[in-house]
Each structure stands twice: as C-alpha cells, then as structure tokens.
Amino acid sequence: MSEAVDLLFTNVHLATMVPTAVDGYGEMVDAALAVKDGRIAWLGARRDAPPAAAEHDCGGAWMTPGLVDCHTHVVHAGNRSNEWEARLNGASYEDIARQGGGIMSTVRATREADAETLLAQSLPRVARLLSEGVTTLEIKSGYGLALDAEARMLRAAREVGKRLPVRVATTFLGAHALPPEFAGRADDYVLEVCERMLPPLAGEGLVDAVDAFCERIGFSNAQTERIFLAARALGLPVKLHAEQLSDQQGAELVARYGGLSADHLEYLSQAGIDAMARAGTVAVLLPGAYYFLRETMPPPIGALREAKVAMAIATDCNPGTSPMTSLLLAMNMACTLWRLTPQEALQGATIHAARALGLHGDIGSLEVGKQADLALWDIARPADLAYAMGSNPCRSVVNGGAVRPAHISV
After folding, report:
1. What distances in angstroms separate CA 41 from CA 8, 256, 344, one per listed residue?
2. 52 vs 1, 238, 403, CA distance in Å?
3. How far apart (Å, rounded) are the C-alpha atoms in residues 370 and 361?
4. Distance between alpha carbon 127 and the CA centroid of its chain, in Å?
5. Nearest-angstrom CA–CA distance, 194 and 328
6. CA atoms of 262 and 195, how far apart (whole Å)
C-alpha cells in the first residue's frame, strides 16, 4: 500500500475473528492495523505496516472487533424488582404475567413516559454496555403495544445512535404481549400489528427487522406466521423469540422464512435445529434470562454445535427477566452455565452476533473493507474476556476509525 492511511494502530495483538481462521480467534501477534475513511484498510505484521498520517501505539494490548449485543430491550421505562422478589418467594414467570405483571407492567410505565423521559432512563444502560467495547446494539420495541407508543420507542432507539457512539439496529416487536385493550382478541391484535402498526413504522424508516414472542403466553405459531408474511411484504427480515418456555416450533417457522435468528431456545427440538442449519438462521443464546429466571432446561448446545448452527450471545437487557448491561458477563455465563468455549463466546459476541443482525458483511471481524469498529483490551489472551466475572479490561474503543475512551458519560 503506497498511499498513506489515516490511522495506524501498532504494537497490538489482533483477534481477527475471521470465520475461516484456523485457530478460531484468528490471532496475529505483534501486528498492526490501518484505517482509512473509517474502514479497515490493511492488517498484518507490524514490520510490514504502511505509512500513516497518524499512529496509535496500543502498548501491547489485544484488539478485537467491536462487540455486538444482538438482542436487547434496553429502551424502556420503569423497574420490576418487585416481580423478581415475588419469583424468589415462589411465583412463576407465567403466574406473574397472567396476573397483569410481567411485560404489561413495563408497558404501562413505557406508555406513560414521554420521549425525553424514555431516553433519560435508557441512555445510562446503553453507556454501561458501551464501556465494555460494544459498538453495535440491537434495540427492540415491544413495550408500547400501540402505534404511538411503539413509534416513540423506535424513535428513541434511533436517537440513542445519534447521542452515543454506537450503531443501532432497530427491531419492531409489536407482538411481544397482548395489550389489555385487546384482551381475548389476540387475532384482532395481530391484524392491528400487521396492517395498522408495521406499515407506517416501516414507512418512517424506523424498522430494520421484525420479531415476535411465539409462546403459550405470547402468540401462536399461526399468528406469528401472519406477522412474518406482513414483514415479507414490506421487504423486512424476521427473527423470533422461540422455544424459551416450551416448544412451539417457532425455530422451524422462522427458519422457513429465512429468519436472521431464533432467540432463547431452551426447549429447541432437533427438528428446529435442522431447520436452522439449513436456513443459516443464527441461534441467539441469552444466558442472563436463564440465570435470572432460575431455569433448569439449558439450550441444546451440543446439538447446535454438531449441526454447525452459528451461536451468538446477547444480554437480553430488559427489566423483567435479564436486567443485565454486561455482554462480558453474558459471555462468562454462556461458558460456565452451558459449557461454550471462550472462543465460541467471543465469536458469539462478534461475528455471529453481527450475522444475527444481517451485518456480518460490514462488522464482526477484523477484515479489510469492514467498518473500523474495534475494541482494545488489557488482557493476556482472548479467552480472558469470558474468564473474569465482573471485570472490564476494555482500554478504549474505536467507532468508524475514531478512538474514544471506554467509559463515556451521559
């Protein structure tokens, strides 16, 4: 490369996370990485580095792709610690939901919050995620369950990406729960979602993907398919909360529609695994909810691994079942609770998480041409990121080639 690049990172070890890497991490020791126009222009041995307008000495740190949290409900209002306490006193998640708690308690709080209140409560949660090297974040709606409130959530999600250094992918989750005004009329509400909510939200450019909660306390397989058909008509990709509490064949359904991901998956069947493998649908694992709900049925990790289904890891940050703002902790939980390897955990928070958002062509690995979203870590080896509970070794973060401190204020 004869032309000088904009910025050269030197004295650094790279965990490229390139899918074809022999060692999985794609390690390059004593390396350098060059950025031009916000994208990775070159990477390789430090001695072969091209000339640069500016140089950043990384002091022997490790560099990874910026982390990707591919499943969150981080924009919401309210608090549900009372329900957590109730569960510890014997109530089940389904009991609480049927009594008007659960998702509906957050719906009430979110509906009552104006745009600035919603942002004021959400931005500190996002900032905590960004302090751990997250550069891309999926944010779902689903606590409005009416057109105006869902629009307010999705606009707030877009505003997060303007106010903080993070790329935001939005997901419309109108079919998250049945709102009280539609009690006993689930099919009518699905019609509302398909015909009167999704089209104007998509028309405003607020929706990158469409999700639903396919479960006994959510929406049936047939109702979910109607939502997928509406999404397909608008050219939007789909994903699904599937097989969290029971096997509703949701994974098979979302795979049939070429879905980006099926998420949770504790009760996933072999038929669902096979369908996901054929379709290339990513399994998004959410250990925070499993831990917080004290579940005992783990996802079928071995079968997913054998079928070569890509496994992503996310926080599922939400007020009721996973009030967690640490993707590093989610990685540790996936290893400790479900026996993922540290390599699988880091893949799950980078390249596979990017795939779960349909963004793997642009982020998720250190490759020439991809966006220069990077994280620098004070660690001895890549496995350390999933190893130390409660530790945050993130030194600094790079968003589109711009270096920032790990910790930001809001």
Report:
1. 10, 37, 27
2. 10, 42, 16
3. 7
4. 15
5. 36
6. 24
- For residue 48, what are its two tokens? 């072969």
Residue (of 288, 286, 289, 229) closest to 259 by Cα position: 229
CA distance 298 to 332: 15
Per the listing, tokens 């745009």 go with 115
Q: Please state whether beta strands 261-264 and 282-285 pair in parallel, antiparallel, or not at all (unpaired).
A: parallel
In this structure, what token pair is assigned to residue 332? 């540790």
Distance CA 167, CA 311 (A): 21
Q: Over pLDDT 90: what percentage of the chain?
A: 90
Q: Tens of pLDDT along 226-277?
A: 999 999 999 999 999 999 999 999 999 999 999 999 999 999 999 999 999 9
Residue 283 CB partners (closer than 8 Å, separation 6+):
261, 262, 263, 265, 268, 276, 299, 304, 309, 310, 311, 312
Indicate left, alpha or beta for 408 from its phi (over 0: left) and psi (-120 to 50: alpha): beta
* In contact, 398 and 65? CB cutoff 8 Å: no
In three-state secondary structure terms, 251 is helix
Q: Where are the beta strands (DSSP E) in 46-103?
A: 55-65, 67-69
